UniProtKB/TrEMBL annotation:
Signal peptide (from-to): 1-18
Domain SGNH hydrolase-type esterase: residue ranges: 105-267
Residue ranges crossing the lipid bilayer per the database entry: none
InterPro entries, sorted: Ester_Hydrolysis_Enzymes (IPR051532), SGNH_hydro (IPR013830), SGNH_hydro_sf (IPR036514)
Pfam families: Lipase_GDSL_2 (PF13472)
Taxonomic lineage of the native organism: Bacteria, Pseudomonadati, Pseudomonadota, Alphaproteobacteria, Sphingomonadales
Presence of keyword Signal: yes
Native source organism of the sequence: Sphingopyxis italica
Protein name per UniProt: Lysophospholipase L1-like esterase
Tagged with keyword Glycoprotein: no
Length: 280
């Protein structure tokens, strides 16, 4: 199953006119009520793409104009809700009280797509709070809303890919490390156990082909392993089971070299299960 988050936009039958974002505001009663709406051309494309996927047909063709509208909308969303706090706001309000076994998975697209590919993994009060494209800076900003306030017994943190890709600008391993350490500190201060997930292998990022990720991923994973040992946390080493021997993901495990397929998540699942079982 594919996520429409990664589908290329195409010029549809609708006029090429992006919705004008609402005026910038400061303090409002409902910040999530002022987000820029999805442009009609994006809605149209996703509808046609979903139908194509269901029929086993190729996705609609790309267009520069459609992509430009999508990009502008994403930029407006980033300005309006940098941390993605609105993404799960309603879902969080609708959650039943936490059970003693609640686990929250916080991360980026790799976490977000896990639910789509393996919905049966997210049963028994396991909650997916991944957001595509996010960095550790953004996850830290929403950590209270999407993790602490949900009162889990365990939080599974898997992050760093988009930092290395420079999704919101230049960063450093020290900054990534500090963000993840702060999330760990916040969780522990609220009596929440932590599982640290490794960054997955990747030889290249298709959205940032100029980035060379192999060495930064290895360096960050070494830091994450050190953090887990230092804080006596459980470390879920997805890198070890997915590495194809050349610091990347085999096509069967990730068609684009970054985002796991159903087969990729099938390899990750036992690692996650063992990690959760090891939490005291």
């Amino acid at each position: 199953m594919k996520s429409f988050i990664f589908l290329p936009l195409a010029l549809g039958a609708l006029p090429l006119a992006a919705a004008e974002p609402p005026p910038r505001a400061g303090i409002v009663a409902d910040p999530c009520g002022s987000l820029p709406p999805m442009p009609a051309i994006v809605v149209d494309y996703l509808t046609r793409a979903k139908a194509a996927l269901a029929a086993g047909e190729p996705l609609p063709p790309r267009s520069a104009e459609g992509t430009a509208i999508y990009t502008k909308w994403q930029q407006d969303l980033l300005l309006a809700d940098f941390a993605g706090l609105c993404r799960y706001a309603a879902a969080n309000r609708d959650l039943p009280p936490a059970t003693p076994d609640r686990v929250v998975f916080i991360g980026d697209s790799i976490t977000e797509l896990w639910l789509a590919e393996q919905p049966d993994f997210f049963t028994g009060d396991r909650i997916d709070r991944g957001i595509s494209g996010q960095t550790t800076t953004q996850m830290l900003a929403r950590f209270r809303a999407d993790a602490i306030d949900l009162k889990p017994r365990v939080v599974h943190i898997m992050a760093g890919t988009n930092d290395i890709a420079g999704n919101i600008g230049a960063t450093s391993l020290d900054r990534i490390d500090a963000n993840i350490r702060t999330m760990v500190d916040l969780a522990e201060a609220h009596g929440i156990a932590v599982v640290i997930g490794s960054v997955l292998p990747a030889r290249q990022f298709n959205w940032r082909p100029e980035i060379a990720p192999i060495e930064p991923i290895a360096a960050l994973n070494a830091r994450l392993r050190q953090l887990a040992a230092e804080k006596k946390l459980v470390f879920a080493d997805y890198y070890a089971v997915l590495d194809d021997g050349s610091h990347g993901l085999a096509k069967i495990h990730a068609e684009d070299g970054v985002h796991p397929t159903a087969a990729g998540y099938a390899v990750m699942r036992p690692v996650a299960e063992r990690a959760l079982a090891a939490v005291r």
